[in-house]
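User: Fold both of these, please.

Assistant: Here is the first one.
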Amino acid sequence: MLSKLIIIGVFIGILYTLASGFYFLITDDADSDRTVRRLSWRVGLSVGLILVLWAGFHFGIIEPRGVNPVQYPVPAGD
């Protein structure tokens, strides 16, 4: 459950930085660097989320579920 909250929190952060970057793009002057900083944060959060998801799958914290989950064969003799 904690992993889901972390993923949702980071995703909300990504959406917030995207929206604020768009707002600063529209409202700020041409010499302002707030848009670049917000979009840099968005890229960093996106890369961080991908790394967290990869680590979760790799270490077994997150298990894939859905349309076509991986089915491991049952060992013979059990």
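And the second sequence with its predicted structure:
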Amino acid sequence: MRLLLLIIALGLGIAIIKHLLSAKGTPPARENPPTAMVRCQQCGVHIPEEEAFHEDKLFFCSDEHRSQYRS
């Protein structure tokens, strides 16, 4: 009976050590890099720079707000 418990404990110990070693070798998940946000000159909402409409050095959330700002 003692031998059986010793074998089970040894097997569990080996399994735990293998799990810890394999988890250590995996790199952490990479997140998407942060996106630059800009502020609409007309309404003040923040939007990603690549989605913004721009004129000179000003950014707008829509073409309509860009037109309103011009007039």
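The chain is about 45% helix and 15% strand.
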